[in-house]
Write the structure tokens for this entry.
Amino acid sequence: MAEAETTLGYEQARDELIEVVRRLEAGGTSLEESLALWERGEELAKACRHWLEGARARLDSALAAREGGGEGSGAE
């Protein structure tokens, strides 16, 4: 699970997730393959959430520093 978080950038994870969803929606795969795709999709979604949460934290930190007049970098 953590492998997708640490090795893929956001865009890579997002693009692979789109492909996984496309394959699942298209059907025609065995139950075993569908389960493997679902599990991979969950890993990729977690990686995307990780990247987005990190970006949100950086934006929040930058906004807080800006509002505070730039005093004390790294409020969190």
In short: Residues 31-67 form the longest helix (37 residues). The chain has a mean pLDDT of 88. Helices lie at 2-7, 10-26, 31-67. Residues 59 and 65 are 10 Å apart (CA to CA).
